[in-house]
Specification:
Blueprint lengths: L11 H38 L6 H27 L9 H34 L1 H7 L2 H19 L9 E4 L4 E4 L10 H27 L12 E3 L2 E3 L3 H13 L6 H13 L23 H37 L7 H25 L1 H9 L24
Antiparallel strand pairs: 1-2, 3-4
Helix pairs in contact: 1-2, 1-10, 2-3, 2-10, 3-4, 3-5, 3-6, 3-9, 6-9, 9-10
Membrane topology: Multi-pass membrane protein
InterPro entries: GPCR_Orphan/Phoenixin (IPR051509), GPCR_Rhodpsn (IPR000276), GPCR_Rhodpsn_7TM (IPR017452)
Pfam families: 7tm_1
């Protein structure tokens, strides 16, 4: 949109239009920044305060929230200060710093969401490996790798490899996307597109895995072999448990069977372990992904996929405008479209907490637990399989 300075000698109606446009921009950016700071701060405090949420998926979510909060607090105020002006009101170095941080957090989101998609696939398809390897040290290593790659992508333009400058049409300091032969920002945009596309491919592969394993073969009953009431063979565990439930472990019994019951009780003081059912006394040795945990993993995967999809939707208009500038020399981009695209990219910083609470039942329950006056009846949390004791962290 046009700036007020461009209408110095114009009619009062055009000046009023420019003033109204600036007011709308300031109000919308202020709303975006407020929602982003409030939502990300609330979710971050919840993740830090509640020990039951100290698990690998939520460590990544915490890093994502903190990065979005810093982006909103640092980048958006400078954009608000530049609205209505034709030049950057601060020094050239500050422009490069703001542009560097904006690009840094954009690539950080892209790289982190890709790594999360890989861990979500491992949690579903290779749960035993995920259970053994996805510990706090691994999470820290993944986050360090994500930040290192993000800095590597955002730092070269500081030395004019590509260009960070104030773009008047966008009213922000960012890449100057020109024709492909004029500068080299194409590589940065291609990398961003490849990362986002690969992330969706991983989620599609996970969806195909879940669909393929919905059709399970029916269990084949193999009778156990009995010898002196000691059951062995493929069906031994189930047969022994069935006999225990049928009366060997409780209730009145005929005198002829009382001695047998006593012998079995001496050999098996507790009911035999059922195949495929976890016993409470062996929580530290759990390896199988049971139904409750599978549902929880699916919900967390759905939450992260919605975050990834929202990232793509909100950044797609701006990325499309950038590609248009790169491949079409002097391509005219409508000012209204460009402004809306930039504002949508800022809105992405506040969308993650909303999506997290919408698509994650566990987070909603823990949030309500923090406000007992607003909580009617508490629903017990579903178990989640983790490979470290949250109480010990």
């Amino acid at each position: 949109m046009a700036n007020t300075s461009e209408f110095g000698g114009s009619s009062p109606s055009l000046q009023n239009y420019a003033s109204a446009a600036s007011a709308v921009k300031l109000a919308s950016l202020g709303l975006i920044m407020g929602i982003s700071l409030l939502g990300n701060a609330s979710l971050s405090l919840l993740l830090l305060k509640d020990s039951s949420l100290r698990k690998a998926p939520y460590y990544f979510l915490l890093d994502l929230c903190l990065a979005d909060a810093v982006r909103s607090a640092v980048c958006i105020p400078f954009v608000m200060a530049s609205i209505g002006g034709s030049a950057w009101p601060y020094s050239a170095l500050s422009c490069k710093i703001v542009a560097f941080m904006a690009v840094l957090f954009c690539f950080h989101n892209a790289f982190l969401l890709f790594c999360v998609s890989v861990t979500r696939y491992m949690a579903i398809a290779h749960h035993r490996f995920y259970y053994k390897r996805m510990n706090p040290c691994t999470c820290v290593a993944v986050l360090c790798m994500v930040w290192t790659l993000s800095v590597a992508m955002a730092f070269p333009p500081v030395f004019d490899v590509g260009t960070y400058k104030f773009i008047r049409e966008e009213e922000q300091c960012i890449f100057e996307h020109r024709y492909v032969k004029a500068n080299d920002t194409l590589g940065f945009m291609l990398m961003l597109a490849v990362i986002v596309g690969t992330t969706h491919v991983v989620y599609i592969k996970m969806l195909c895995f879940v669909y393929d394993h919905r059709k399970m073969k029916p269990a084949q009953l193999v009778p156990a072999i009995s010898q002196n009431w000691t059951f062995h063979g493929p069906g031994a565990t189930g047969q022994a448990a069935a006999n225990w439930i049928a009366g060997f472990g409780r209730g009145p019994m005929p005198p002829t069977l009382l001695g047998i019951r006593q012998n079995l009780h001496n050999q098996h003081p507790t009911p035999p372990t059922l195949v495929g059912i976890r016993q409470a006394s062996h929580l530290g040795n759990r390896r199988l992904l049971v139904l409750d945990e599978f549902k929880m993993e699916k919900r967390i995967g759905k939450m992260y996929y919605m975050i990834t999809l929202t990232f793509l939707i909100l950044w797609a208009p701006y990325i499309s405008a950038c590609y248009l500038r790169i491949f079409v020399r002097g391509a005219p981009v409508p000012q209204l479209y460009l402004t809306a695209a930039v504002w949508m990219s800022f809105a992405q910083a506040g969308a993650n907490p909303i999506i997290s609470f919408m698509f994650n039942k566990e987070l909603r329950l823990r949030l309500r637990a923090c406000f007992p006056c607003c909580l009617g009846t508490q629903t017990p949390m579903e178990p989640y399989c983790g490979n470290w004791d949250s109480a010990g962290l």
